[in-house]
Amino acid sequence: MFSEYIKKNRLKNAFRIGDISYKRKKGSKTFKSYPYIVDYRERKEAIEYVFKLPQGLNPEELMKKEYVFRQVFGQKYTLEGDGLVYVLRVFVNDIDQTFDFEWKDIGPYLSNASFPILAGKDALGKVHVYDMVTNPHLLIAGETGSGKSVTVRAIITSILLHMRTRVDLYLGDMKRSEFHLFRNVEGVKAVMTKKSDLLKCLTWLKGEMERRGDLLDAWEVEHIDEYNKLEGVTFEKYILLAIDEVALLKKEKDMMSIVEEISCIGRALGVYLILSMQRPDAKVLEGQLKNNLTVRYAFRHSDKINSDITLGRGTPHDASTISNSEKGRFIFRGDTTQTLQAPLLELKVARKLLEPYKKTVNAKEVNEDLERESREAFMELPFLECGDDE
Ligand SMILES: Nc1ncnc2c1ncn2[C@@H]1O[C@H](COP(=O)(O)OP(=O)(O)OP(=O)(O)O)[C@@H](O)[C@H]1O
């Protein structure tokens, strides 16, 4: 009982320190009403506080002062609410350092979304998956070695295992590091390592978005999912364009303007983006693009300024507090903001999982492709079955 009193007082203190209160003046006196703790539960994994804002207190005030919870309770908390009643969960343990990508365990989590994107595991061990249809366009940023490539590998592998017949993937590998793994896998339309190929892809996507836009207009529907439900129409797949190290395209105005266009109008057309970068480059993310990347994964950042570029200014969350040894740890910003552990999918495990869906190509075909490319006959292809430049 005494311990409950102390723990409740910690939250009351947080309200006082942050001056989270509604102020009323009566004569020369000011009266403050603080949020009211309506429930308190101690569970095995977390302490839960349920509190209610006093009438008149703008919920934005609470969000502005969220840093106080961080100062009082540390990193291990989540805060969710509806503008009146909030639940603050303070976890007893930290998040597990590893979350192995076991397809048999992960697969079932993907079935509740139209276009599920695997995020990570929270401190309660709950696996988080969100729907790209409702939260389109993802930005993944973090320092070198923080876990971005492994995360993108896990996301793309899970998409291919779960829905390869319903999505076309176009992968831009500007660092030539990772995406070769996906070449020739069913569902993957192109793996591009050259800017010229990526430009062709983007130009094609621009036209494809126009075509899809006309289609929606003609059938008077608002979303590609609605169109696909109409009788007698040809099924239109989702399209996902993933670009690794998009900051390398900073000077390519033509390309970046199409990327921005996808971020603006792709949602209804079923055309989505996953962009990753080491340093969150304010120049690359300027204009509409950043606002349209509705989900952000912030792995370890060098400082709060960079973390704010990724997560948005004014957030109390700070990806520079993730330590160097916490590989795969990131701050997820979507409908909620919380710290998660990304799945660890080793390259050889991914290869094995994708093997059954990989077309076999022999050396002769590869050489023919390369030769064809050097003659630039490849320029005329409608769009890209091979597209690699090694
Ligand atoms: N989710 C994870 N869980 C545990 N360890 C991880 C996780 N993700 C990455 N690691 C470890 O961190 C190493 C670096 O990860 P990764 O290559 O994904 O970093 P990166 O951010 O893509 O770096 P770069 O920007 O230099 O490519 C991996 O080789 C792996 O050992």
UniProtKB/TrEMBL annotation:
Keyword 4Fe-4S applies: no
Gene Ontology terms, MF aspect: ATP binding; DNA binding
Residue ranges occupied by any FtsK domain in the UniProt entry: 124-308
Membrane topology: Multi-pass membrane protein
Entry keywords, A to Z: ATP-binding, Nucleotide-binding
InterPro entries: FtsK/SpoIIIE/SftA, FtsK_dom, P-loop_NTPase
Pfam families: FtsK_SpoIIIE
Protein name: DNA segregation ATPase FtsK/SpoIIIE, S-DNA-T family
Taxonomy of the source species: Bacteria, Bacillati, Bacillota, Bacilli, Bacillales
